[in-house]
């Protein structure tokens, strides 16, 4: 828990709730609601998705309190390499959708979208390859594939000359991830497996590493309870990590950048360029990627932006009620 314990009244006093529009629907989300509050370190974001239970939301709250009130880690770098993120758009919308990301060297492509076919996924991937020939490609299935289907994608894309940097959470369970890694090990392919949900939504975030079911861990500061906890997981897992966002505002992305800046090693581009997916933000200087990098800095919130994107009163009340419930679940002794 954060070294300085704020009272609930401290959080409520500065709390603001905004609803930020997305440029393109992203896994069913068209507006991203987040709650912001201010502490001695500056502004922090608390934004567990609406369907998450209070117990899980409390973990995210721990991260936000640490960022606003707690001790800050040593920064080892002042900018972070980031990938572009491509939602599950039609192939003919790929170039326009990626345009706000500017220059980039890596693209993470969303696949296995509900209601879409594997053929649409392949068309999207091929469109990226045809239009951005030098970009590395990674896929994110959010646990939507069986091991055999994921392996068939690897083979099919290889047949078209498309190499994958890695597959992010291709399968739902740790057992399925291990099965896929076994299929790859017995083949001529060398695609890496990255675990996301098997880390951030697991009772034990290190289980996937101990099971040998992943080559890379995807770390997200909010869902893991804060930068300090994420650094501990990275150190104990002993695997390369990628720091990613949870579709945050620039305030949340700044927390992710702080985590990435504190890691001893950063082998892969991080998924922290997602401000490019937002049509609105809470600051006049958003953490949008420039030439494939974002800066490591705290974000100054603009009062005008808070007003423009302020959530309706009933949504503010909903978030404050949730804040009170989640605050009551925090373990300050940890």
Textual characterization of the structure:
This protein is α/β, with parallel strands linked by helices. A hairpin with a 2-residue loop joins strand 1 and strand 2 (29-39). It has a seven-stranded parallel sheet. A three-stranded antiparallel sheet has the order 1-2-3, with helices on both faces. It has two domains: 8-73 and 309-327, Enolase-like, N-terminal domain (Enolase-like, domain 1, 2-Layer Sandwich); 79-303, Alpha-Beta Barrel (TIM Barrel). The protein is globular. Helix 2 (54-69) crosses helix 13 (313-327), helix 5 packs parallel to helix 6 and helix 10 runs parallel beside helix 11. It has helices at residues 8-14, 54-69, 94-98, 118-131, 147-159, 174-185, 197-200, 207-210, 221-224, 227-237, 250-262, 303-308, 313-327; strands spanning 16-26, 29-39, 42-46, 79-81, 84-86, 106-110, 136-140, 164-168, 192-195, 216-219, 241-243, 293-295.
CATH class of the largest domain: Alpha Beta
- Coarse structural class: alpha/beta
- Beta fraction of the residues? 15-25%
- CATH architecture assignment name of the largest domain: Alpha-Beta Barrel
Using only C-alpha atoms, the radius of gyration works out to: 19 Å
CATH-derived topology of the largest domain: TIM Barrel
User: Order of strands across the biggest sheet?
Assistant: 5-6-7-8-9-10-11
Total strand segments: 12
Number of helices: 13
- What would the principal axes of the Cα set say about the shape? globular
Question: What helical percentage do the residues reach?
Answer: 25-40%
Q: Give the domain tally.
A: 2
The CATH homologous superfamily of the largest domain corresponds to Enolase-like C-terminal domain
Order of helices and strands: HEEEHEEHEHEHEHEHHEHHEHEHH
Give the biggest beta sheet: 7 strands, parallel
**Average of per-residue pLDDT values:** 96
Distance between the termini: 6 Å
Low-confidence stretches: none
């Amino acid at each position: 828990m954060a070294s300085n314990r704020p009272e609930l009244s401290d959080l409520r006093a500065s709390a603001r709730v905004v609803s930020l529009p997305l440029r393109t629907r992203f896994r069913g989300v068209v507006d991203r609601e987040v709650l912001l509050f201010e502490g001695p370190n500056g502004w922090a974001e608390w934004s567990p998705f609406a369907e998450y239970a209070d117990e899980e939301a409390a973990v995210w709250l721990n991260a936000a309190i640490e960022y606003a009130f707690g001790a800050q880690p040593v920064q080892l770098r002042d900018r972070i390499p980031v990938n572009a993120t491509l939602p599950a758009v039609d192939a003919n919308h790929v170039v326009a959708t990626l345009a706000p990301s500017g220059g980039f060297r890596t693209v993470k492509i969303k696949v296995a979208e509900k209601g879409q076919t594997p053929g649409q996924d392949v068309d999207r991937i091929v469109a990226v390859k045809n239009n951005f020939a030098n970009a590395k490609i990674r896929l994110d299935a959010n646990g939507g594939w069986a091991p055999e289907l994921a392996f068939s994608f690897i083979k099919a894309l290889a047949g078209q000359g498309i190499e994958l940097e890695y597959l992010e959470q291709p399968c739902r369970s740790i057992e399925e991830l291990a099965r896929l890694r076994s299929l790859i090990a017995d083949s001529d392919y060398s695609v890496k497996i990255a675990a996301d949900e098997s880390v951030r939504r697991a009772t034990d975030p290190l289980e996937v590493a101990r099971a040998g079911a992943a080559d890379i861990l995807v770390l997200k500061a909010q869902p893991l309870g804060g930068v300090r906890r994420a650094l501990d997981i990275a150190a104990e897992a002993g695997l390369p990590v990628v720091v990613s966002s949870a579709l945050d505002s620039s305030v949340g992305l700044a927390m992710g950048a702080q985590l990435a800046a504190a890691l001893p090693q950063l082998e892969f581009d991080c998924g922290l360029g997602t401000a490019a997916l937002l049509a609105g933000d809470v600051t006049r200087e958003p953490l949008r990627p420039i030439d494939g990098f974002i800066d490591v800095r705290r974000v100054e919130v603009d009062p005008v932006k808070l007003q423009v994107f302020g959530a309706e009163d009933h949504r503010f009340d909903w978030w404050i009620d949730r804040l009170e419930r989640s605050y009551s679940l925090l373990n300050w002794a940890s």
